[in-house]
Prior knowledge:
It contains four helices and no strands. It is mainly alpha-helical.
Amino acid sequence: xxxxxxxxxxxxxxxxxxxxxxxxxxxxxxxxxxxxxxxxxxxxxxxxxxxxxxxxxxxxxxxxxxxxxx
Length: 70
């Protein structure tokens, strides 16, 4: 039923900042989780950079900093 909803079909073709913010947020959490067991500062700084990219795409992504810090 959701696949044929006209409103969702109209919005499916539009790529907004939510797509990029979501991508960088997920990438940041993934890299932060990978950095945790090894205690690797390179991965931790990469996670922080990805979190910064997510925030620069959309400021509502600011809570993504918490998993990166913790």
